[in-house]
Amino acid sequence: MVRLPPSGRPLRHLGGLPLGLLSGLLLCSLLGLLLVVTSCAPRRASVGSMASEAAPRSKSIRREAPAQATHSHLRLPAQVTVELSGLRGADEVRWRGPDGRPGLAELIGSGVFLNGAASPSPARVRGPVTIEDRTYDGILLIMPCPEGGLEARVQLGLEAYVEGVVASETSIWSATSAELEAQAIAARTYAAATLRQRSENGAPALLADGVMDQAFGGRHTPGSSARAREVADRLTRAVQATRGFVLMRGDRFEEARYHAACGGHTSNFSDVFRKEHRERNAAGPTGVPCSSCARRAARESSQGAPDEKRPLGWIEELSPSSLARIGRVFGLPGAPRRIGPARTDAGGRWLDVALEANDGTVKRIPFEELRRAAGYGVLRSGAVVATVPAPSDPLLGGGWRAQGKGRGHGVGLCQEGARDLGRAGWSSAAILAHYYPGATLARHDGGAPPDRSVLDRHSKAEAAQAAAPMTLASAADR
Ligand SMILES: [Zn+2]
User: Which region, left, alpha or beta, applies to residue 472 given φ > 0 means left and ψ of -120 to 50 means alpha?
Assistant: First the structure.
């Protein structure tokens, strides 16, 4: 629900634009959103402008010899274990086996019982298993959860996991092969780097199946139509074409973060993930312009409202009760009295936020922590354009409204941008070179040297075919 700001409360800008202009833009956006939410006649999004995005001839990512795979710390895991977060704490876990036969795991006392019989922990069920509408290959592991109830994990091959992530993170029905390949390499690199870091820190070598790591909804199961099978084949081919490929930065796996939409410019890893940058001395991608998002931001600004099909702008309000909860999360004696940016990057993205308590104390926290506390789907990005009240004004017990653009943390590959670059004929290697400047592409599964033509090809035919109406990316906001 979008509401207009209360009368008599001026909107003030946060960046370098004149107050009156931004106030006007915000008001236009609010009015535009009202029109959008009350309109029943959707318009089709135009993508014609992206067709003129020339595929770069010189932009190519440097490749490393596969010999590096001999270093044990760079070997890709053959298997990964993924926690099924939706089942954490469940009283029971039900599934169907490949023959459709039902299975049941229950916690009785402190032990796991499989179909009524006591089982060693973790209980192991050979897959594929279908839980609700998700089918998981590999082995289902079920064990007591430390906080009570059960928890479930799936242990499966890395490449099957990558294919499941790409299916969950990408709108595969309208994706080009280049977009799918770029996403597969980013997902594989993220998994390898994250598991490596967790094992070094003594943490369980586990990946979450949601926004804390990568979305993973199990195996992609296509419908029976020819188009559905074609889409599934394209997904499988993209993952197979990139098998074993990862991004490297020096002698480490790249910090292959990615996000749904940057808003016009991606951000520096070292700024947004400052803690990781400091603790691990980890370098990562620096921010780059994203022509796709920049064009859309300009279009939304001129039309005064977010695009209906692929909205980049957003407005959300945190209620007084949400603010009180956030205050508790960060140790404030109640809801914050003022909220404002404590540190921004060159593009204006909020990196740290200052929460001022009623007693005047100020808590400064990374904006990503505020996003996590408020909900990643609420504060969709740190690219905050304006707030009501303004940072200098007190909340006076009311809510806090933020207007921003983009979705996610803004680091690394911009999924919306990668989509448009793929449609414009860029290869997966060129897309990755753009969003991870300075990274190299290497094959680390000990397999044959890469077929260089695979990742560099430009899929002109696909780009032309993709000049259809775009659909909203299904990627999780992160
Ligand atoms: Zn972007």
Answer: beta
Cis peptide before 285 (omega within 30 of 0): no
Secondary structure (H, E, C), 327-356: HHHCCCCCCCCEEEEEEECCCCCEEEEEEE
- Provide the H-helix boundaries in 156-212: 158-169, 177-200
273 C-alpha vs ligand 1 centroid, how far in Å? 18
Report residues near ion ligand 1: CB below 5 Å: 262, 290, 293, 414, 417
Considering only CA atoms, which of 76, 184, 73 is closest in space to residue 447? 76
Give the distance (Å) from ligand 1 centre to CA of residue 85.
29
Q: Which residue has the tokens 């209360």?
A: 6
Beta-carbon contacts of residue 223 (< 8 Å; ≥ 6 apart): none
For the chain, give the number of residues: 478
**Radius of gyration in angstroms for the set of CA atoms belonging to the chain, rounded to a whole number:** 23
pLDDT averaged over 10-residue windows placed end to end, the chain, 478 residues: 30 33 38 31 28 45 48 79 96 94 95 95 94 96 96 97 97 95 97 92 93 94 93 96 92 94 95 87 91 94 87 94 95 94 93 94 94 92 95 92 95 97 94 94 70 49 37 31
What residues contact 403, with CB distance under 8 A and at least 6 apart?
26, 29, 313, 314, 315, 384, 385, 386, 387
Q: 15 CA to middle of ligand 1, Å?
A: 20
Alpha carbon of 55 to ligand 1 centroid (Å): 17
Which residues neighbour 70 within 8 Å (Cβ) at sequence distance 6 or greater?
none
Quote the ligand 1 centre to 442 CA distance (angstroms). 25
Residue 1: its pLDDT value, please? 32
Say if CB 91 and CB 150 are below 8 A apart: yes
CB 166 within 8 A of CB 463: no
pLDDT of residue 278: 85
- Is 0.70 topped by the overall pTM? yes
d(CA 205, CA 194): 8
Q: How far is the CA of 324 from the centre of ligand 1 (A)?
A: 33
Q: In whole angstroms, what is the distance from residue 42 CA to residue 309 CA?
A: 8
